[in-house]
């Protein structure tokens, strides 16, 4: 059994996952990263890349088994793999919506169900689920993505209570708008409805500006390092000034004011039409 703390990070080929894998390996952790195509992923020193498709049961089981067979245990699972699906809710097909949940929500469920027997047997473990500002406050024209993150929030809260009994710690890292490669990989509904064109584009432009002004993936990596290093990790870690502000405001402000502010932030004010 390795004396180093073992970390498995899903979606480590770019962005937040890659930055986290690099930082943790530099700090002495034994890191396994994953990608659907590890041979084409950028190499990170001292990080072993494994093939993983979180949508496929056999792929998930093979990935976790590969880690267990090589090092004998798993200290930390970071569920980072995911993607963003954009478009008005009316525009999105049921298949597109299901695909979003298959990766962003059920992919995490698969990973957790597969690592928990190992963590329970060894008597310790840590699971960190990467959520989003969209899981705290819905983002217009990213409603299915928001729904997948809201589902993850509830799932993680319940999971934390259930596995705490086995000395397994569970946390959420809730990320605001970031300047990462993910903003250039956002998927858009295949079928678009003309009536939404103006408002969809105004929202996309606002999101892009927020992202370009946001911090890079290094901040996420540093936060995950902090969570892993903590002896008493919290449930929630909110990243980014805007995410922290919105999280606080939703606790205390009336719903009407929150809605008005959200409409304004994403340029959906009726007065600004045209």
Can you tell me the CATH architecture? Answer: 3-Layer(aba) Sandwich
Percentage of residues in strands:
15-25%
Radius of gyration: 19 Å
- Unreliable residue runs: none
**H/E topology pattern:** EHEEHEEHHEHEEHHEHH
The secondary-structure class comes to: alpha/beta
Number of helices: 9
Helical proportion, percent range: 40-55%
CATH homologous superfamily annotation = NAD(P)-binding Rossmann-like Domain
What do you see in this structure?
The chain has helices at 15-26, 57-71, 94-104, 106-122, 143-163, 197-212, 217-229, 241-252, 255-265; strands at residues 6-9, 30-35, 47-51, 76-79, 85-86, 125-132, 168-175, 187-188, 236-239. The protein is built from nine helices and nine strands. It has 274 residues and is of the alpha/beta class. The chain is globular, with a radius of gyration of 19 Å. The chain has a single domain, classed as NAD(P)-binding Rossmann-like Domain (Rossmann fold, 3-Layer(aba) Sandwich).
Sum this structure up briefly:
With 274 residues, the chain is an alpha/beta fold. It has helices spanning 15-26, 57-71, 94-104, 106-122, 143-163, 197-212, 217-229, 241-252, 255-265; strands at residues 6-9, 30-35, 47-51, 76-79, 85-86, 125-132, 168-175, 187-188, 236-239. Helix 2 runs parallel beside helix 4 and helix 3 packs parallel to helix 5 (143-163).
